[in-house]
Amino acid sequence: MRAMILAAGRGERMRPLTDHTPKPLLEVKGKALIEYHLEQLNQLGITDVVINHAWLGEQFPQKLGNGSKYGVNIHYSAESDGALETAGGIIKALPLLIDQSLVEEESTANAAQEPFLVINGDVFLSGQFTQLPKLAEDKLAHLWLVENPEHNPEGDFYLHDGLVINDFADNATRFTFSGIALYRPAFFSALASETAQKLALGPSLRALAAQHRISGELLNIGWTDVGTPERLALLNQTAE
Questions:
Q1: How far apart are alpha carbons 79 and 8 in whole angstroms?
Q2: Which of 64, 84, 118, 167 has the fewest CB atoms lying closer than 10 Å?
């Protein structure tokens, strides 16, 4: 399996910290947020990692190099004309996320539909994934949801029988999308190529949830959306 870390955003809410440093390179306890992800991926056995970048993008290879010190191989996807948002960035990086050797060896369409892991570069996980689920053949994505944080009290999706859904009965609990998911390349087939477009809560995600094509589960490790300087400061006080 391959993985992608989304790192191209401007980080407006994190200004002035992000005026000179991309948000995923901001540090918690002396280590950049994105370095924690690289170590996590290595422990999962994922060694091919794509990182997209736009704002101050040259700082990523300067800081991370080819990934060897983290036990991974980093492939950079530069968005030189400006950030393409989450969906656009993934679409641009798809050639790096599909194992072409598998396609050539197996000569089957299924080989090009192996899922890949995507994680937002500006979240912090205070725990280790032990293993990833196997994505069912009829599913195009698997999302990890979390208990609603203060900045998103209404949540995003419901969970029911292992499915991520938009609507449910009264008094059911909605949860927040963590920014961590497995996707098949086919998930993006209906989206325009390499144009700026968001993924989270976008029409494609909603439509596939309505079709029961997205599975999901609650994330069982600590999660923080590092979206403001205050949250980053708190993490630096409390993270172990």
A1: 8
A2: 167
In the chain, where the domains are located = 3-237
- Which CATH code for domain 3-237? 3.90.550.10
Q: Where do we find the tokens 């400061």? A: 233
Residue 201 — pLDDT band, cuts 50, 70, 90? low
pTM of the predicted protein model: 0.89
- Relative to beta strand 116-120, strand 174-183 is antiparallel
The CA distances from residue 70 to 27, 66, 113, 199, 230, in Å, are: 16, 9, 27, 28, 28
CA atoms within 13 A on the CB side of 109: 1
- pLDDT per residue as tens digits for the range 159-185: 988 999 988 766 788 999 999 999 998
In 3D space, the residue among 121, 122, 86 whose CA is nearest the CA of residue 227 turns out to be 122
Given a contact cutoff of 8 angstroms between Cβ atoms, the answer to whether 85 and 54 are in contact is: no
